[in-house]
Amino acid sequence: MRQPQQDARLERYSRAARRDLRRRNGLDWAIFALGAGLILWGVIEGASRMPYNWQWYRIPPFFFRIVEGELVWGPFVRGLLVTLQITLWGALLAFAIGLATALLRLSRSFTGHALATAYLELVRNTPLLVQMYLFYFVLSPILGIDRFWTGVLALAVFEASFISEIIRGGILSVPRGQWEAASALGLRPLPAYARVVLPQAVPLMLPPLTSSLVNLIKNSAIVSTIAIFDLTNEGRDAIAATFLTFEIWLTVAAVYLSLTLTLSALAGWLERRARRPDRRAA
């Protein structure tokens, strides 16, 4: 008789907790809507009082045009594609460099640990813009690579210095017992990392890795300084041709914001999906 009573009590507590959570979520959404409304009102009110002739109708042709019945993509779409290419290749290369650096920092090799530490201190304590110029004017002629891959490499090396610490922290968060279990199964270090450690560490790394990827998207605008025609550079050219400073920069900012918000939502979904097995096991 005691077990059904306990189950009923737990069910009542669960329902009450869900109701309380819904109320709090509703209050949070109401506060968010109020704040967003106030910000939007402030922007509209400030824009209406500015002595400026807003010409938003001239923005769509920068995305696409219909010429003789055919769809022609505008410079903003071409710049966005370049930005996405830089972000994709930069993220892949940054993750590879970051993983290698994290493993060197965790290794028992004095030389490897010293090299990884020197790399982190050098890259993280110098501005990205300075590094971009060094890669473009010094390393690019030596390596014989074009400006696109120079920008990708500079961004990857910079962002990898942060990703390496995220990976190292995720690996160190795995309980020592998991390492001992992998060793007891006869797994060597690399298979132990691949089969035991990283599958448990990746869900913990996803939120900070998402932040790093968002930073990579935003930092990709710096490649415009070495004449890569990304979204930012296309925006500058559009301003030079039309003098629509506010409209174009606000549009470019909105595109970047859409990219980062989409990425954050996707990362949140992946994180929840990665943690489902843990909830089922519990």
From TrEMBL:
Residue intervals passing through the bilayer: 26-44, 86-106, 127-145, 248-270
Q: Which Pfam families match?
A: BPD_transp_1
Q: What is its main location?
A: membrane
Question: InterPro entries this protein is in?
Answer: AA_ABC_transptr_permease_3TM (IPR010065), ArtM/GltK/GlnP/TcyL/YhdX-like (IPR043429), MetI-like (IPR000515), MetI-like_sf (IPR035906)
Its membrane topology is listed as: Multi-pass membrane protein
The compartments listed are: Cell inner membrane; Cell membrane
Query: What are the GO cellular component annotations?
Result: ATP-binding cassette (ABC) transporter complex
Domain ABC transmembrane type-1, chain residue ranges per copy: 80-267
Keyword Membrane carried by entry: yes
Please verify whether the record's keywords include Cell membrane.
yes
Supply the alphabetized keyword list: Amino-acid transport, Cell membrane, Membrane, Transmembrane, Transmembrane helix, Transport
GO molecular function terms listed in the Swiss-Prot or TrEMBL record: transmembrane transporter activity
Which GO BP terms sit in this record?
amino acid transport
Q: What does this protein do?
A: Part of the binding-protein-dependent transport system for glutamine; probably responsible for the translocation of the substrate across the membrane.
Q: Which family does it belong to?
A: Belongs to the binding-protein-dependent transport system permease family. HisMQ subfamily.
Protein name as it appears in the record: Amino acid ABC transporter membrane protein 1 (PAAT family)
The scientific name of the source species is: Rhodovulum euryhalinum
